[in-house]
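Subgroup meeting minutes
Present: P.N., E.W., G.H.
Scribe: E.W.

1. P.N. recapped why we're keeping a running log of single-chain structure predictions: easier to compare across weeks, and new members can see raw inputs and outputs side by side.
2. G.H. added today's entry (268 aa).
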Amino acid sequence: MNQLMEGIKIVCSDSDINLKDRLFLSSGTEPASVSTDCGSTPYCNNALVPRLPWRSLTSMEQQILFNTKLEKLESLYVSILNIPQNILDCLKELNKLEDRRFLKDILQTERVKKGVALIHEYIETFRMQSAELSEYRIDWNEPKQMTVTVDSERCRVGLHIDNQRGSSLHRISINLGSEPRYFLFINLSIDQLYRLIFETDGNAVSIISGRSRICMAFMQLFPNYPVVKLRVNPGEAYIAPTEHITHDGCTEGTHNLDVFFTLRSIFS
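Output recorded in log:
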């Protein structure tokens, strides 16, 4: 199976963002050991990553992925948006960060603290008020990495599904760096993955196998299914249901630290 299926849609609420120019597809997935990658952090055993090369989308693939009207979507979607300039002005010192050792000190400045407060005010305009709001995090990734998430064993996990407590649906991640960063994902929900696996091999996983096992089983059974690569420019954010889709971040082609803000909640 190497053709995109109907699934998670990408939406854009800002008219000046052209999705067609910032999306790419891989030719499938493969073990991280055979990937080309310049990151210094090793991969975990059995990690899977997108298979190169990346290519542009066909018109049919664009129709499968794009949705211009958020109100017609179900709760699972990927969105990209511009962050207001007054927020970015407070956080512009992070855009110039060259040495990660200075990040802790920068985060203690009053200007950055004001910027974080403004982000929270902005998020409240589209967060579901009954939804839990996780603690925020401002962190960094190395440049030139095909995938970026590192686990407690200090190795990169590759494409994965977040295993939270299920209390939040979406993650928002804001690019505070000086270069584009990328969001990688497979456009199928965990429920879709399970159905496809069960139809192909009913013994591969069970409904209680856990999200990570289902995610891995899908990529092993369907190694030719493409991964979507979405460019997120400096000053932009993505919102994605990272507890329900296979995903990771990416800093391919960059040279500077990837600085970002992130938290989880449910966004409407």
